[in-house]
From TrEMBL:
Gene Ontology MF term list: methylmalonate-semialdehyde dehydrogenase (acylating, NAD) activity
A Pfam family annotated for this UniProt entry: Aldedh
Species this chain originates from: Ottowia oryzae
EC number of this enzyme: 1.2.1.27
Taxonomy, superkingdom: Bacteria
Gene3D superfamilies named in the record: Aldehyde Dehydrogenase, Chain A, domain 1 (3.40.605.10), Aldehyde Dehydrogenase, Chain A, domain 2 (3.40.309.10)
UniProt keyword Amino-acid biosynthesis present: no
Protein name: methylmalonate-semialdehyde dehydrogenase (CoA acylating)
UniProt-listed PANTHER family: MALONATE-SEMIALDEHYDE DEHYDROGENASE, METHYLMALONATE-SEMIALDEHYDE DEHYDROGENASE [ACYLATING], MITOCHONDRIAL
Length: 507
């Protein structure tokens, strides 16, 4: 945490949201929210006290008593209004996001829009939260299911998508009748708070949505709190594993979307220009700070000759502040991120990978204090090298080679992560073989970042995911509800009694 200096002390403070009110924290621990392109302090975020976290949970618990009984149409109409408010404020939301996170304005709008899609999906809760009925399963007996809300749920979100991922979480949880406590990233909470303001404006009642800020202590408090029934997490593998283990031991439902090392196979028959554009965009967009970033290209056979053209494509990308027109690659989120990414590039060189394009210390006019790394490409990368084994979370593309598709699939399946993968080919047979044999949850065919639309669910697998239900889509309705099965028989005066039945059968 930053010690508040005179400049930081003049910056506005980020508030907590408790029981429908934005309140000033009484904490003595604060962190600066810093523009990563300029190092300007934008705001100060509090690390909420234990009492404030308890108050947020208590508010959610009290609100659940009435919210769970709110008609489903009333809930749906709130999210219809919220999606319109988000559309109306898109430019403001994107500008806030760019200032505190660094990504380009067009990418920031994309961040907001992909979250907006989930809000629209939440407005369809009337058809998503349907139970089942079997009529006359025995003599005069019907069985049916109810999908009922759990109670207080919580979300812990990362820095890289401060609009999209909170919108993955609280709309679906609230639409299904739960109340929610959100802990956004302490690095860039401002756009998240603006979205919560819009949610209240749309009609979310006091206590139904609450926000606390903080670091490890706040995460642990959420994991341990007896009144929180379910937790959704997106972030690093280290923290996600901790959250899953700690919260599961506390008896909670948990879903954790975690780290990745996403590969793309490039077959020699792929459309070269489209493929090179896709590789560059997916590897270097958002400065590589996406859990679905394409970080390893596996070039098969003659496609290995495309490296020089890929390097030239990467050189055309503009590195600058996210507000500058035409910028392709903005800054990394923090000085610590910059140090980590450049350190991994150093290790890649030391461990024998060939540095085809060096993005360290780019000259970015007007942003000399920014956390910039330009597009960086390694070839000859193999398992065991740090740049292959670790998620770099920067604009670094590793290139590996394979003799054929079988060797490429074997390489990908040997990696412990299973978030996303892709193949570039014009062969239907190759694409079908890939989708059948690859052991990764989300597959793209000529699509470099295969994040599904909310009609489906985010389905990362293996070391990239803990918990068996994903965020948004049909799966998250099951995550945020408890299935109650009712077996009913109604008698009228004409029903003949068969006496006492001491068996388990229904007669």
């Amino acid at each position: 945490m930053n010690a508040p200096d005179k400049v930081a002390a003049l910056a506005p403070t980020v508030k907590l949201l408790i029981n429908g009110q934005f309140v000033e924290s009484k904490t003595t621990q604060w962190r600066d929210v810093v523009n990563p392109a300029t190092q300007q302090v934008l705001a100060r975020v509090p690390f909420a006290t234990a009492e404030e976290i308890d108050a947020a949970v208590a508010s959610a618990k009290e609100a659940f008593k009435t919210w769970k009984k709110t008609p489903i149409g009333t809930r749906a109409r709130i999210f219809l209004k919220l999606q319109q408010l988000i559309r109306d404020n898109m430019k403001e939301l994107a500008a806030l996001l760019t200032a505190e996170q660094g990504k380009t304005l067009p990418d920031a709008e994309g961040d907001v829009f992909r979250g907006l899609e989930v809000v629209e999906h939440a407005a369809n809760i009337g058809t998503l939260q349907l139970g089942e009925l079997a009529n006359n399963v025995a003599n005069g007996v019907d069985t049916y299911t109810l999908l009922q809300p759990l109670g207080v749920c919580a979300g812990i979100t990362p820095f890289n998508f401060p609009a999209m991922i909170p919108l993955w979480m609280f709309p679906m949880a609230i639409a299904t009748g739960n109340t929610f406590v959100l802990k956004p990233s302490e690095q860039d909470p401002m756009v998240t708070m603006r979205l919560c303001e819009l949610a209240l404006q749309a009609g979310v009642p006091p206590g139904v949505l609450n926000v606390v800020h903080g670091g490890e202590a706040a995460v642990n408090a959420i994991c341990d709190h007896a009144d929180i029934k379910a937790i959704s997490f997106v972030g690093s593998t280290k923290v996600g594993t901790h959250v899953y283990n700690r919260a599961s031991l506390a008896g909670k439902r948990v879903q954790c979307m975690m780290g990745a090392k996403n590969h793309a196979i490039v077959m020699p028959d792929a459309n070269k220009e489209q493929t090179l554009n896709a590789l560059a965009g997916a590897a270097f967009g958002a400065a590589g700070q996406r859990c679905m970033a394409l970080s390893v290209a596996v070039l098969v056979g003659e496609a290995r000759q495309w490296i020089p053209e890929l390097v030239e494509k990467a050189k055309t990308l503009k590195v600058s502040g996210g507000t500058e027109a035409g910028t392709d690659v903005g800054p990394l989120v923090s000085c610590a991120a910059l140090e980590r990414v450049t350190g991994l590039i150093d290790r890649g060189v030391a461990e024998g990978a060939k540095l085809e394009l060096d993005g360290r210390k780019p000259d970015v006019k007007g942003y000399e204090k920014g956390n910039f790394v330009g597009p960086t490409i390694f070839s000859g990368v193999k398992p065991g090298m740090s740049v292959y084994d670790q998620e770099i979370f920067g604009p670094v593309l590793c290139i590996a080679g394979a003799d054929d598709i079988d060797q490429a699939i074997e390489l990908i399946n040997a990696n412990p992560n299973g978030n996303g993968t892709a193949i570039f080919t014009q062969s239907g047979a190759a694409a079908r073989k890939f989708q059948e044999e690859i052991d990764v949850g989300q597959v793209g065919i000529n699509v470099p970042i295969p994040v599904p639309v909310p009609l489906f669910s985010f389905t990362g697998s293996r070391a990239s995911k803990l918990g068996d239900l994903g965020p948004y889509g049909k799966q998250v309705v099951m995550f945020y509800t408890q299935t109650k099965t009712v077996t009913a028989r109604w008698f009228d005066d004409s029903t003949t009694s068969h006496g006492v039945n001491t068996t388990i059968s229904l007669k």
